[in-house]
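Students often ask why we bother encoding 3D structure as a string. The short answer is that it lets us treat folding as translation between two languages. Here is a chain of 194 residues written in the first language.
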Amino acid sequence: MRKFIGLPPMKHYVLSVVSALFCFGLVANAQKAVVKTNILYWATTTPNIGVEFVVAPRWTLELEGGYNPWTLDSAKNIKAKHFLVSPEVRYWFCEAFHGHFIGLNANYTQFNVGGIPFFKDKRQEGWAAAAGITYGCSWPIARCWNIEANLGLGLWYTEYDVYESRKCGLFNESVSKIAFGPTSVGLSFVYIIK
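And here it is in the second language, the structure alphabet:
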């Protein structure tokens, strides 16, 4: 039985995100950039943030991350604990941050999930990685604000242990599998930095 690595301490997570922002900022070299947050991800009680930089005409590089440390109901062991890091390269058909785009995305997550829809009678601990293709569109709603919608599909590889859903539930099995499915789903508020 594998031991779940666990979620990183918040200070390490914040340090990693700040370091990534600094590195991407050097690459951007005072070009246009955006900061965003995915409303759909917030609906799962997951704080998240993303940054995106222009790296060439019509090309951008994005890095998004989310972290959910909450146990929703301790007595029933209901939780959706996880962290997710998702880089993506995008090609915009008109100009960066306006109109339609396609992209290539990747994901890495570690999770400890149980007692929520699709996981009612079990708890799963493990990790997953994915790669996929994204299509999306961004619409201006104010001078420096956009709304962005995107959907990505691709392949996931995951390894996890399955336990009974109750607290300290018994180990059932170890699973590793490849699956096709969504690699990104977003409805985001976007702030454009010029």
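Translate back mentally: The two ends are 51 Å apart (CA to CA). Keep this in mind for the problem set.
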